[in-house]
Amino acid sequence: MAPNCVNTGNSTLDDQINEWLSWNKDIKAEMEIKNLIDNGQIKTLSQLFLKRLEFGTAGLRGQMGPGYNQMNDLVIIQTGQGLVKYLLKIIPDVTEKGIILGYDGRYNSKRFAELTATIFLNKKIKVYMYSKVCPTPFIPYGVLKYKCAAGVMVTASHNPKEDNGYKVYWENGSQIITPHDKEIQKSILENLEPLQSSWNTSSIYTNSIFKDPLTEVMEAYFSDIKKNVLYPEVNRKTSLRFTYTPVHGVGYNYMAEAFKVANFNPFIVVDEQKNPDPEFSTVKFPNPEEPSALELSIKTANDNDSTIIIANDPDADRLACAIKNNGDWHVFSGNELGALLGWWMLHTFKVRQPDCNLADAYMMASTVSSKILASIAKKEGFKFEETLTGFKWMGNKASELIKFGKTILFAYEEAIGFMCGSNVLDKDGVSAGTRIAEMAAYLQTMGFTLIDKLNEIYSEYGYHISDNSYWICHEQETIKSIFNRLRNFDDKANTYPTCILEGKYPIRSVRDLTTGYDNTQPGNRAVLPVSNSSQMITFTFKNGLVTTLRTSGTEPKIKYYNELCASPDQKDVTKLQSILTEMVSAIVKELLQPEANNLIARS
Fold it and tell me: The Alpha-D-phosphohexomutase alpha/beta/alpha domain covers which part of the protein (predicted)?
């Protein structure tokens, strides 16, 4: 289709389509747009060209396809051009520091990484780019190892196969936060016209300032894994049989090497999911949080007399774990794994450094995660920090604390993301998988299982039981209406619900990180950072239940997180579970009102 020939009846839309067509070099994408025009799909075309993907959760993430509002070659080039201009402006020695790039096994991931590499090489900026698919943690690890100015991982993590993403890390090895995200977005908009040289990827691998860091990073990363193994002789002797799945992602070779250096016998792999597959052909959702994603793992484990399953998501930055218990499979929640790994990292630290001052040691969790680490910290003496949702906040907080000589033991978020130590300032499913295996082997020497240990943790520090889920809502106005009702409950600003079930369960405090309201703080002003671009309200009840309602940054969901935090003397778990169930049902019915708001239940 020749440029400047589109006529949809909307001149602004025509201009955007014509501009995109004049810059685009993807013939297939051009044909898709032509078909939409020929079929009069004005609403679809408006969605693709009158909106634009913006930097959100530390970068871009969206569906692949033509237009400015999807992931494609032109959008990646525009993003790369904006990013490189911003780095040249902010970091004086960026040409020498360089950038590190990686990609997963999704459609177009390698292509998007190569386009990015081309843009940086054209500006004489050193490029480190992995020669094979790699785990996302290898980018933040590589940023610190090579002292890079930034890092980019092309991945959409556990999103559907139609999606891809562009995750950006800063020179401190953490995902970017404000103001960098907003300034990069501004720089992208100032550099939209693609340079002709940005399309030519043919000479990347022969460029004198290009380097493949895979061998060096593998050696260093797995050396760090090995150093942190506490009981290698126990690992070698354990009779436990582990089953592993990368869920069609990048993790197999890396987790196999991690098991090897940790002195374990090889695990049993789920063959059907062993290799990267952009179709994710055996799962409905490539997300190990979803029970259906572990069906083949359970079958493989049963067939091989294995009692523990370890799973990574497709870019291997998250970890799921299941254990056979009295003939049935228990899939640990993110909060349960957070309690276990938190205990293990504390145990490891105390064994290695028995005389060390715990007052300079830190653990972290996101605000929607369990408060179990806070409860352990009160008794054991280390410090606990709560952050906003997302590892970008924990990674940057960890970097800040390290500068002050503090030790980071552990950080996690309930969406099965775990940071064991500070070699990677982001979630890392490979190192976390090794640690959970090591803990299981150690506990076996005492006749304990992971479930036994979890119950012991709760018995000692207080039961923390959770009920987390979500409702689907595609209408932004409906979402806005739900949250506005909650913060104007008596038709006045900052008046929130005071109870549920007609006063049976009173609310003690409210924190609204959309407006900055927190009635536990001086002047009712929240301490944690505030973002009016997303919705998040936390209610704390007098009986210890903490409930957070929030919107997702990447999906059309209203998520709810509920945790009943009991004192150590409350041992009746059945009674606590009954209270939690009753309260969650009332919270959904009274606060979210799914029927009145036409919310769609989780499938």
Answer: 53-191, 219-327, 334-458
Instruction: Please give the average per-residue pLDDT across 126-154, as a whole number.
Output: 98
Cβ atoms of 244 and 271 closer than 8 Å: no
What is the chain's Cα-based Rg?
Answer: 25
Q: What is the mean pLDDT of residues 535-545?
A: 96
What residue has token string 């004192």?
A: 567
What average pLDDT does the structure give for the chain? 95
Check whether 1 has a pLDDT greater than 60. no
Given CATH 3.40.120.10, say whether it is the number of domain 219-334: yes
157 is known as an active-site residue: yes
What is the share, in percent, of the chain residues with pLDDT greater than 70?
Answer: 99
Contact indicator for 71, 65 with CB cutoff of 8 Å: yes
C-alpha dihedral over 66, 69, 73, 75, to 10 degrees? 150
Strand pairing class (308-312; 242-245): parallel
Task: Report, as an integer, the average pLDDT of 446-468.
Answer: 96
Domain boundaries, the chain: 1-51, 71-213, 219-334, 344-428+440-461, 464-601
Name the CATH superfamily for 344-428+440-461. Alpha-D-Glucose-1,6-Bisphosphate, subunit A, domain 3 (3.40.120.10)
Q: Which residue has the tokens 């520090």?
A: 461
* 3-state secondary structure (DSSP) of residue 68: coil
pLDDT of residue 4: 54
Name the 3-class secondary structure at 462. coil
What CA–CA distances, in Å, run from 49 to 181, 332, 376?
Answer: 22, 43, 51
Q: Convert 374-387 into a string of H (helix), E (strand) and C (coil).
A: HHHHHHHCCEEEEE
Amino acid 56: pLDDT: 67
Q: Is the pTM of this model over 0.85?
A: yes
**Residue of 11, 46, 109, 157 marked catalytic:** 157
